[in-house]
C-alpha cells in the first residue's frame, strides 16, 4: 500500500519516481506558479511536472530555489514540444528548458506528443541526453500502444514513463496492461478530468462511504491501479486536500466500480488526431 507523499515507484532503470506530484499546466509564470509549487513542497510534495509549452519553467525553477529543499530530494519533469522535435532541435530545446529552470539536470524528460514524422529522431536525442547524464530518466507522453511498439522497434532504451490522459471516464486498460508488461510506468495527466463528472452517483456513493471528496477517491484509484498521478491546483487548500489520500484504501470491489465508469471519453486531444505544432 502506498502510504505517503514520499512513496516512490522504481522505474526500469532504478530511478525512484514519486507516485504523486503537482502538475502546472496552464499555471501562469511568475508568482502564481511559484506560490503553487511552494505550497505543494511545504505540504510534502516532491514531484513537479512542467513542459516547455506551459511557458512557466522560469517560475518553476525560482520556486525550487526558494523552497529550501535539497535539489536531490525533488523530482522535476519537463517535455519537448512538437515544433522542437527532431534530433538537433530536441537537444537544443532540452538545454533551453534546463536554462529556464536554472537546473543542472532534469529527473524526467518526455516527448510531449507523438509527432509522426519526428518522434523517432526525437527519441534518439533523448537517449543521447540520458547517456550524457543530463537527465535521470526519459519517457514519452500521449503515446498509444502502436506508437510505443513503433518506437521500441528501433530504440536502444525503452521509455521509462508514458504520461497520458487517464481518469475514470478514460481508463485505458489495454495501454496500462501493455505498459506494465513492458516495464513502462504509466502516469496520469488530467486525472480529475477538470471535475467534469464529480457528480457521478458512484463517486458520490464512494465519497460518502470513505468520507473523502470525489477528487480524493479518484486520485486514490490512480495509485491503486499502479498509475502515477499529478493533479493540478493553484489553491493551497486544494493542493493539501488532493494529497490527503494516504489514510484509506479502496476495496477491490470499489476499484471495479470506478473502472466501470469508463466511456473512452477524452477531455484532451486524441494522440492519433492532434493538430498543434506552434
Verbal overview:
Helix content is 38%, strand content 15%. It has helices at residues 31-42, 57-67, 87-101, 119-131, 145-154, 173-181, 201-210, 214-224, 236-242, 252-259, and strands at residues 8-10, 16-18, 22-23, 47-49, 75-80, 106-111, 135-141, 161-165, 185-189, 228-229. The strands form 2 sheets. It has an 8-stranded parallel beta sheet. α2 (57-67) packs across α3 (87-101). It comes from Metabacillus fastidiosus.
List the helices and strands and how they pair.
Layout: E1 8-10, E2 16-18, E3 22-23, H1 31-42, E4 47-49, H2 57-67, E5 75-80, H3 87-101, E6 106-111, H4 119-131, E7 135-141, H5 145-154, E8 161-165, H6 173-181, E9 185-189, H7 201-210, H8 214-224, E10 228-229, H9 236-242, H10 252-259
Parallel strand pairs: 3-4, 4-5, 5-6, 6-7, 7-8, 8-9, 9-10
Antiparallel strand pairs: 1-2
Helix pairs in contact: 1-2, 2-3, 3-4, 7-8
Oligomer: single chain
* Count of discrete alpha- or pi-helical segments spanning 4 or more residues: 10
Query: What is the terminal separation in angstroms?
Result: 42 Å
CATH class: Alpha Beta
Give the rounded overall mean pLDDT. Answer: 97
Task: Please estimate the helix content.
Answer: 25-40%
Summed up, the domain count is 1
By CATH, the superfamily comes out as NADP-dependent oxidoreductase domain
CATH topology: TIM Barrel
> What is the spatial order of strands in the main beta sheet?
3-4-5-6-7-8-9-10
Strand tally is 10
The ordered H/E elements are: EEEHEHEHEHEHEHEHHEHH
- Contiguous uncertain segments of 5+ residues: none
Percentage beta strand: 15-25%
Keywords: NADP, Oxidoreductase
Protein name: Aldo/keto reductase
Organism: Metabacillus fastidiosus
Family: Belongs to the aldo/keto reductase family.
Amino acid at each position: 500500500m502506498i502510504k505517503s507523499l514520499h512513496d516512490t515507484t522504481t522505474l526500469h532503470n532504478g530511478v525512484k519516481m514519486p507516485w504523486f506530484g503537482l502538475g502546472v499546466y496552464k499555471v501562469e509564470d511568475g508568482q502564481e506558479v511559484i506560490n503553487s509549487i511552494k505550497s505543494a513542497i511545504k505540504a510534502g510534495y516532491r514531484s513537479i511536472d512542467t513542459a516547455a509549452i506551459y511557458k512557466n519553467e522560469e517560475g518553476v525553477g525560482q520556486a525550487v530555489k526558494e523552497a529550501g529543499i535539497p535539489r536531490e530530494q525533488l523530482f522535476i519533469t519537463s517535455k519537448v514540444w512538437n515544433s522542437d522535435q527532431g534530433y538537433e532541435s530536441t537537444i537544443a530545446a532540452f538545454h533551453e528548458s534546463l536554462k529556464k529552470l536554472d537546473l543542472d539536470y532534469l529527473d524526467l524528460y518526455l516527448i510531449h506528443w507523438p509527432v509522426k514524422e519526428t518522434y523517432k529522431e526525437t527519441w534518439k536525442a533523448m537517449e543521447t541526453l540520458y547517456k550524457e547524464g543530463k537527465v535521470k530518466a526519459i519517457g514519452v507522453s500521449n503515446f498509444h500502444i502502436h506508437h510505443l511498439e513503433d518506437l521500441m522497434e528501433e530504440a536502444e532504451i525503452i521509455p521509462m514513463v508514458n504520461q497520458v490522459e487517464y481518469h475514470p471516464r478514460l481508463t485505458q486498460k489495454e495501454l496500462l496492461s501493455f505498459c506494465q508488461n513492458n516495464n513502462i510506468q504509466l502516469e496520469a495527466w488530467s486525472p480529475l478530468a477538470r471535475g467534469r463528472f464529480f457528480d457521478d452517483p458512484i463517486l458520490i456513493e464512494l465519497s460518502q462511504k470513505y468520507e473523502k471528496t470525489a477528487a480524493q477517491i479518484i486520485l486514490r484509484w490512480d495509485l491503486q491501479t499502479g498509475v502515477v498521478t499529478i493533479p493540478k491546483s493553484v489553491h493551497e487548500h486544494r493542493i493539501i486536500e488532493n494529497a490527503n489520500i494516504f489514510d484509506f484504501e479502496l476495496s477491490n470491489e470499489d476499484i471495479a466500480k470506478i473502472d466501470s465508469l469508463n466511456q473512452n471519453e477524452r477531455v484532451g486531444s486524441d494522440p492519433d488526431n492532434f493538430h498543434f505544432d506552434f
